[in-house]
Amino acid sequence: MADVNRGNRPLSPHLQIYRPQLNSITSILNRITGNALLLGALLIVWWLIAAATGPEYFAMADGMLTSVLGDLVMLGSLWALWYHALGGIRHLIWDTGRGLDADTADKMGWGIIIGSVALTFLTVIAI
Questions:
Q1: Residue 54 pLDDT
Q2: What is the pLDDT of residues 53-107, one digit of tens each?
């Protein structure tokens, strides 16, 4: 059956039409932090392999990871770890059927954002 009204149908909405919502932003950020954690883990594995290889190679790898750029990357990885963990807890709560209304979902979204920053700060202070 052919659709003869193809030209009269509205086009699919584009991202410019939609206003970003907190839930969509936190969901996308949860996926991004999951992938970023893989990169941070690869850096730590590289550091461990360098430690097992020899003192010269370890000194080079350790120098890179403890530089200002390395510290920023590790700080970002720490934040991503807390953010991703809190996002996983939120999804576990949602899997039980709780917190699915818009108001509670927004509160949990803000809780993840604020909580991940606070926990990162507390972890840096504790170390």
A1: 94
A2: 999 999 999 999 999 999 999 999 999 999 999 999 999 999 999 999 999 999 9
Among 94, 90, 81, smallest CA distance to 41 is for 81
Q: 61 with 50: CB under 8 angstroms?
A: yes
- CA distances (Å), 124 to each of 28, 74, 75, 82, 113, in order? 25, 11, 8, 12, 17
**Entry field: residues in the chain:** 127
CA distances to 8, 71, 109, 123 from 96, rounded to whole Å, are 43, 38, 17, 30
Domains by residue range for the chain, with CATH = 21-126 (1.20.1300.10)
Cα–Cα distance for residue pair 73/91, rounded to 1 Å: 26
pTM of structure: 0.81
Q: Which residue has the tokens 């206003």?
A: 19
Distance of CA 36 to the CA centre of its chain: 7
